[in-house]
Amino acid sequence: MNTVNPTDNECQYTYKPCTNPRSRKKSGSLHSFCEKRLREADAMRAITTSRPTPIEPTRTRSIATSASFDVEDIRFLNEWLLDTNNVDADDYLDETSSSTSPLTAEDYAILCDIFRGP
Fold first, then answer.
1. What is the pLDDT of residue 11?
2. Would residue 94 count as lying in a domain?
3. Total domain count for the chain?
4. How does pLDDT run across 9-65, given as a tens digit for each residue?
């Protein structure tokens, strides 16, 4: 015996219960949805295809949040600090500049050790 489940002929819309009868295709077979849901789908498709394609925003270069140095930067700083300026800790920390200097003798010695390298 060939029985047809009553829900087989109802719209198979999954988001809400819909008891409307399923629509027929041109070939005679059943669509999954009723006429109402097919019209809604066609309207949504027309809206989304008529929208202009969004223009992708130009990419901006990210700015480094922390300092990064390579070997050439260190060499340049070494040359600038030691060779070009010809400054040592005693010259830098004389009596006139010690009150305005943000560096202590220890700070300056640490910087010199860093830039002199191995």
1. 93
2. yes
3. 2
4. 899 999 989 999 999 999 999 999 999 999 999 999 998 888 787 777 777 766 666
Segments forming the whole domain that contains residue 25: 6-50
What digits encode the pLDDT tens for the residues 68-79? 667 777 777 777
- 63 found inside a domain: no
Cβ-Cβ contacts under 8 Å for 16 (sequence gap 6 or more): none
Query: Of how many residues is the chain composed?
Result: 118
Looking at the DSSP bridge assignments, the partners of residue 30 are 24
Q: Contact at 8 Å (CB) between 91 and 103? A: no
pTM: 0.40
Taking the C-alpha atoms of residue 105 and residue 92, their distance in angstroms, rounded to an integer, is 9
| Token pair of 67 as six digits | 């300092």
Q: In one letter, which amino acid is 90? A: D
Q: Residue 10 pairs with which residues in a beta bridge?
A: 21
Phi and psi at 24, nearest 5°, equal: -105, 140
Q: How far apart are CA 16 and CA 29, in angstroms?
A: 23
